[in-house]
Design a protein that fits this description.
Layout: H1 2-25, H2 43-50, H3 72-95, H4 99-102
Amino acid sequence: MEMLLMGLCISVFGFGVAALAFGAATRSESSAPQLEPQPEIRPAVAARAAAPARFFSDRVVPAVPFHSQVPIEVLLHQIENHVRLEEAAAQSFVDFPSLDLLHCKTTSSLVN
């Protein structure tokens, strides 16, 4: 009987919290308190407000300069070197399997 009364009390409390949350979510704008008029908007803020909205962020992403791009040959060489080192590590593990070889770090500059 005590468990039933405890469950009933918790249910009533939960229903009250849900009713308050629902009432706050569906409250109309007219019942919201009136705010004081805002002070004069600075020109920088007005310019940002006039700019088109970006997806998830108003921050402008800087463009990557062309001279910092790495040639494709260098990237291909790094990938080939990484694959060669990983194949050598796999072959050494197949030849002499041990727990140390299984958990050792790679010597490649590219990390998985």
